[in-house]
Write a structure and sequence with these properties.
five-stranded antiparallel β-sheet, 359 residues, 20 strands, six-stranded mixed β-sheet, alpha+beta, globular, binds adenosine-5'-triphosphate
Length: 359
């Protein structure tokens, strides 16, 4: 197993800084995800690890070996691309065997290893089928088998599920995790899909315009976002500006003196702007008035039924702001009436004050 260290790496394409002074250490055996919106530098970073690009500055290390300018074929990484990049007119066997033949592995060994990996990705019955005659999910498995068969030190996956429909994506997510655990291989996964990132990763790095905003476990990233960008990008949230006043933190949009347990007031600096973030599922609704802090009176503006959950949009502060509230679907008797009065409570231990992200 291999650890990957990126030290202060920058990649410049002409005037565009695709990646800026990035520091990340990926532990051996870890499932590590680069998550962020389109164009934020995820693929460029992955390509610097694979060796398809060399950094303009900084170092890439595998364990304590400096790989910064080592050519891709000498890195022993296995890569799976979004479009699979398979040879359509070759059979499954020929596609998977390709990398081993290039490495001049003998015929008996090629056969053994290809059969072995196809067994693992559950494609053995398709071994002689032409790739163009396979479904999208099956082609994805061939691409995975081809990456794994060379016994790579690091597995690199670039949006491997984005061409699949929702049901198949779910299935392949579990499949990839099962294989990753079975092989115990250090895996770096690129996606802009937060659900994929949260459900699969040991740790996630959240990117925005070439910068890494936060590194953490899925629960850390979701529950303790370091700024408004992370809070908004991962999951859904209600975000409002807050200002320090003599009496405490005040939110003008909600006309509310805000009580927030985390983080403590000592973290606030005069030079930064702050927002409050509260998740839709953390908000408590009540038809009768509630005692306590962070209580607002509102009107139900819109109720949206999604199947497993119900979203209610509540207008507060005389209609100046809207809060989104999410509840599990507990049956028709619990659905709110649009236009009805309602009380809203933002539990202080669920209100997070975050600085506004800098670029
Ligand atoms: P996506 O999710 O859309 O693939 P990404 O986060 O992977 O996006 P990158 O592909 O790493 O983003 O691109 C980061 C930035 O670098 C973008 O502004 C992109 O236009 C630019 N870029 C990427 N590759 C090149 C290149 N070969 N030449 C010039 N600019 C590039």
């Amino acid at each position: 197993m291999t650890a990957v260290t990126l030290s202060n790496i920058t990649k410049q394409f002409g005037d565009v800084a695709a990646v800026k002074e990035l520091d990340i250490t990926i532990k051996e055996g870890e499932f590590f995800t680069f998550l962020g919106p389109s164009g934020c530098g995820k693929t460029t970073t992955l390509r610097m690890i694979a060796g398809f690009y060399y950094p303009s500055a900084g170092k890439v290390k595998f364990d304590d070996r400096d790989m910064t300018t080592v050519s891709p074929e000498k890195r022993n990484t296995g890569m799976v691309f979004q479009n699979y990049a398979l040879f359509p007119h070759m059979t499954v066997f020929e596609n998977v065997a390709f990398g081993l033949k290039v490495r001049k592995v003998n015929k008996t060994e090629v056969k053994r290893r290809v059969e072995d990996v196809l067994e693992k990705v559950r494609l053995k019955p398709f071994i002689n089928r032409q790739v163009s005659q396979l479904s999208g999910g099956q082609q994805q498995r061939v691409a995975l088998a081809r990456a794994l068969v060379i016994e790579p030190d690091i597995l690199l996956l670039d949006e491997p599920l984005s061409n699949l429909d929702a049901r198949l994506r779910d299935e392949m997510r579990n499949e990839i995790l099962r294989l990753q655990r079975e092989y115990g291989i250090t895996t770096i996964y690129v996606t802009h899909d937060q659900v994929e990132a949260l459900t699969m990763s040991d740790r996630i790095a959240v990117f925005n315009v070439g910068n890494c905003q936060q590194i953490g476990t899925p629960t850390e990233i979701y529950n303790q976002p370091v700024n408004d960008f992370v809070a908004e990008f991962i999951g859904e949230t209600n975000l409002f500006e807050v200002k320090q006043r003599d009496e405490g933190l005040f939110c003008e949009d909600l006309n509310l003196l805000v009580h927030a347990d985390t983080p403590g007031e000592e973290v606030f600096s005069k030079n930064e702007n702050y927002k409050m973030s509260v998740r839709p599922e953390a908000i408590i609704l009540s038809k009768t008035n509630v005692e306590g802090v962070n209580v607002l009176k509102g009107k139900v503006d819109l109720v949206q039924f999604t199947g497993e959950s119900v979203h209610s949009f509540i207008k507060v502060n005389e209609g100046h702001a809207t809060l989104k509230v999410t509840d599990l679907n507990r049956g028709p008797s619990t659905y709110l009436q649009e236009g009805s009065d309602i009380y809203v409570q933002l539990p202080p231990d669920q209100v997070r004050i975050v600085p506004v992200a800098k670029e």
